[in-house]
Amino acid sequence: MKIAVTAASGRLGHATLRWLSGGIGASDVVAVARQPERVLIPGIEARAGDYHSLDSMRVALRGIDTAIMISAPVAGGSERITLHRNAIEAARQAGVRRVLFTSIIGNGGEMATLFAATQRVNRQTEADLQASGLQWVIGRNALYLELDLLQMRKARETGVYRNPAGTGRCPYLTIDEIAFAYARLAADKSQTGQIYNITGEALTQAELLREAGVVFGLDVRYETQSDDASIARFRELMPERGEAVAHMLTGCFQSIRAGAFDVPSHFQAAAGRPARSVRELMQDVAVAEAALSPGTTP
Ligand SMILES: NC(=O)c1ccc[n+]([C@@H]2O[C@H](COP(=O)([O-])OP(=O)(O)OC[C@H]3O[C@@H](n4cnc5c(N)ncnc54)[C@H](OP(=O)(O)O)[C@@H]3O)[C@@H](O)[C@H]2O)c1
User: Which end of the chain is more exposed for a tag (fewer CB within 10 A), N or C?
Assistant: First the structure.
């Protein structure tokens, strides 16, 4: 039973490949990436496959039982729907039995925010997969803890962390914890026809900061920021990502404020164990950082 991960050269791809490799053995794991040489895990077969090219994906997915289809990066709006359709159709033509799509959480409230465009892509791909005739599993990811933690730790310079989330609750998981759930879901052949929220503990921004205070000694307070100020901040922070990304990231926080990401967790049903708490996940991040740079303080 071979399991492939597509769009595998990124963060979620590598983490999922590692868990799969440890679980079912590297010889049954295939990485599909635009540039297979960017897959850096020994013992795993890496094949070339680009979501832009249905042909390349069909060839790459030959002999695969289950494909974990990682969502294409946010860019170009409706273009992502086409890329995902290519991957689904390629899986069908290649004879893949089951596709697991990595989507994003939301309870509908996010459709009134600047996150709606991103969410429409994910929900459309979910619908396309369900209509494909393939066996399917959908995982809706929590937000990546690492990304917001980075911003919180940067706020050490000013002592204030601002975004538009207000007192809304949001579940965060590390990329590694999300990947663990996907590797378990993919390896369990009985898992099909279900949508799982791959989430854990849901905290407010102020609660997240408190946890970061315990684990990283961070002494930063939270303030709600206006949507316009948030867009301006992202514009300034990452000019190379463009206006659409500044809107999308602000939309994430609007969605948190609206309670749209405060969804029930299905992590245990997907992964066979409860999700690690936010504090444990932050401790995991601290341990990983210490291993990379021994002797530095968090
Ligand atoms: N839940 C969250 O908080 C959150 C946060 C960020 C992103 N996401 C979503 O989750 C996905 C995975 O996250 P990540 O952290 O692994 O992202 P990442 O590290 O940026 O990796 C993105 C991957 O997509 C690949 N890719 C880009 N265009 C492709 C194409 N046309 N065909 C096939 N592969 C393509 C990239 O390949 P190359 O190596 O060739 O560039 C890379 O392997 C993202 O793409 C995004 O949709 C979720």
Answer: N
Which residues are CB-contacts of 92 (< 8 A; sequence separation ≥ 6)?
A: 132, 133, 134
Ligand 1 centre and the CA of 159: distance in Å?
Answer: 32
What is the band of 75 on the pLDDT scale with cuts at 50, 70, 90? low
> What does the alpha-carbon distance between residue 108 and residue 82 come to, in Å, rounded to a whole number?
23
Residue type, 80: R
Question: CA 145, CA 184: separation in Å to the nearest integer?
Answer: 20
Ligand 1 pocket by Cβ (under 6 Å): 7, 9-13, 33-35, 38, 50-52, 70-74, 83, 104, 141, 143-144, 175
Domains of the chain (ranges plus CATH)?
A: 3-143+171-201+261-275 (3.40.50.720)
Q: What tens digit of pLDDT does each residue of 164-195 get?
A: 999 999 999 999 999 999 999 999 999 999 99
**pLDDT band, residue 298 (cuts 50/70/90):** low
Amino acid at 131: A
- Residue 14 CA: nearest ligand 1 atom is 16
Calculate how far, in angstroms, residue 208's C-alpha sits from the geometric centre of ligand 1: 25
